[in-house]
């Protein structure tokens, strides 16, 4: 078995998790977020559509993985934990109106004498349902439950050098995939064919680095729909004199580098050029504010002040911490770049900055993913941070900015 | 706006949902499952990584969509419901430790005088977290909550002719994508490059039908890992004399046709040929048992008896209802083909039958998706239901079966 990280790195992640558990008075952490399960053990499979859990016991050296029988071999193959700590529940627990995997998990915890402890559960996590919590409480009447929703997520906030290296590879992959997809897009081409090209390049990757699947599929609104950032592609063809937004991410060993660009098919109107130039200037001003010691709110302020000069404002947050992820999101649900988030930037924090402006009938997205360095920032991609204009004779960046 | 279904079809779905609500004494249904939201309204966007809800009030003609501000335009564009019934919450509710979208939703329900009714919530549904339920209860102290986890899912069980037509298109897409991917795979090719080819073909679709994204990414275990059905691809190359399992689905307008095949690179060993022939015979015997009036357990029994003759048994269920879906699953969480499921088959029910056998060091998967017809079954794909043997001079089906 080849793990993506040295076993010492997993051990350190587990130690850091236990430190936080101790601070919060949690004796047993019930990890259900697939990204957190992967972070602590290496576990990597598309098995999170059934219930599974990684149990971290504060005074036990190794966590326990509990999942479906057909997934136990995969847990043995992709994690560093002992085979004895891989426990499987029978298939009749799957999608049943009678049985629930949390009954089984509770029973295991009672059997090993851990049924009466202080349990942290990820209350705000998609793969821990409302019913999961009810059934786990019922199965463990002597336990005391606490919310530990983002406990491991916060351990993930500052990346190791190896994690950064994986993100650099994801950056190389998405840079190339975006460039090739923009090359391919033209009026008359079907949107789904462009999405197919994008996917091909994201997964094929480079001769050195094979791509992993991004946690969000390519989003590709066009025309009026550029005001609707989370629409995917259709079977329709691209139209002349129409904008296209592509938001996607490169992914390498589950590490993401998201990236968005707006393409104008044909010369953009004056308004679009103007909005794009405001966004482009805002990006540069925000990037200049990045350094260790600055806060997320400082970055948001740099952006807000930059676009305010032109009469614009953005209601939604400017960005969020990103990195390791499983569907449905590549955000880490910890630090957000917004006015009330005073997280202090530290080297090897990584953010997707999405300085998009959406209006009633259109929108502009030009996003980038950066790492905080000792002195400033490193971008994971090199594709120009500009509106891309593509007409019959080729393409160029926003004429206003050049 | 072009909806994938006639507005009368959405109306009928809503009526059927209200009928079930009435039977169960539910006055307000809080729909958070993205597939159910789409089924009732057409709503289609990758926005389910933040909280959103469709509220069906039994004595109101139209449901209410509540979601994030940046997604409201998408809801207006992709659904048949009135713009006035699209309500947006501000961005500070997103991934916040303080604010929760369910606070907002509760407030809206109180404001419109619906705060004290009998509410059905999807307790066992990934996009309704344990915290969502806590916060909704807190926001609506006068409401009475009931579990309505699969209420809409069961309305989805029998497909309309238009839904079946979309599944036929998904079947054409996956048939072709599977064939081309198997053509492409050979020793020395990287797994991720094969996944890239598969993705390209699934999304590009055919000249007539553009592919949508499947709710599960391609799974592609090889060698020993064929005992681990939910592993995805790696950067490694395919090896000679080694099996490869591909499980994927064609998707058209969110309708899925899943399909799995096992490929032997080089002539398979005797054991693999033997197991494959047992599975192939089991498939045919199970298919013969499909007809309206038979039960899910009847199909499982046909399969079980067929493989028992050769000393095999399968611990996991034989299949499940499939069709409309969003990640992380293409199963509908209603009828399962297993011994304790006595669902009576009716025309236009659709199932993914996955008669896979997994052992300690290998596994065989040959799956198909079928519709129950008036007299028997219709398969959505035509690729042979056999072990595919690929050697240097070309490929063929399992020699034992032919």
Automatic annotation (TrEMBL), chains A, B:
CDD domains: APP_MetAP. Residues 165-374 form the Peptidase M24 domain. Residues 13-158 form the Creatinase N-terminal domain. It holds the Pfam family Peptidase_M24. This is Xaa-Pro dipeptidase.
């Amino acid at each position: 078995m080849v793990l993506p990280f040295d076993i010492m790195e997993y051990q350190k992640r587990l130690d850091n998790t236990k430190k936080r558990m101790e601070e919060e008075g949690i004796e047993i952490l019930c990890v259900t977020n697939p990204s957190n399960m992967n972070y602590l053990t290496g576990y990597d499979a598309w098995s999170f559509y059934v219930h599974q859990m990684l149990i971290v016991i504060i005074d036990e050296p190794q966590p326990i993985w509990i999942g479906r029988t057909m997934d136990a071999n995969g847990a043995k193959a992709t994690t560093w934990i002992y085979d004895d700590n891989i426990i499987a529940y029978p298939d009749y627990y799957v999608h049943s109106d009678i049985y629930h995997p949390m009954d089984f998990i509770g029973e295991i915890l009672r059997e090993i004498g851990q049924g009466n402890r202080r349990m942290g559960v990820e209350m705000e996590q998609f793969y821990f349902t409302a019913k999961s919590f009810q059934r786990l409480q019922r199965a463990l009447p002597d336990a005391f439950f606490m919310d530990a929703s983002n406990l491991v997520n916060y351990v993930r906030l500052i990346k190791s050098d190896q994690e950064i290296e994986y993100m650099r590879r994801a950056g190389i992959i998405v840079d190339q995939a975006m460039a090739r997809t923009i090359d391919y897009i033209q009026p008359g081409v079907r949107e789904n064919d462009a999405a197919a090209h994008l996917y091909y390049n994201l997964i094929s990757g480079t001769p050195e680095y094979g791509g992993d699947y991004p946690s969000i599929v390519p989003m590709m609104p066009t025309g009026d729909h550029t005001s609707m950032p989370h629409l995917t592609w259709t079977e329709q063809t691209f139209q002349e004199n129409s904008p296209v937004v592509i938001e996607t991410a490169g992914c390498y060993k589950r590490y993401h580098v998201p990236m968005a660009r707006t393409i104008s098919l044909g010369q953009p109107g004056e308004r679009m050029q103007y909005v794009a130039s405001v966004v482009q200037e805002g990006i540069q001003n925000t990037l200049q504010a990045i350094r260790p010691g600055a806060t997320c709110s400082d970055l948001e302020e740099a952006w807000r002040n930059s676009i305010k000069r032109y009469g614009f404002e953005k209601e939604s947050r400017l960005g969020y911490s990103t990195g390791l992820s499983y569907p449905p999101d590549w955000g880490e649900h910890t630090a957000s770049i917004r006015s009330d988030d005073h997280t202090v930037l530290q080297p090897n924090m990584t953010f997707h900055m999405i300085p998009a402006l959406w209006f009633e009938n259109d929108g502009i997205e030009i996003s980038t993913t950066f790492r905080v360095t000792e002195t400033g920032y490193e971008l994971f991609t090199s594709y120009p941070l500009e509106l891309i204009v593509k007409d019959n004779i080729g393409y160029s960046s926003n004429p206003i900015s050049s």
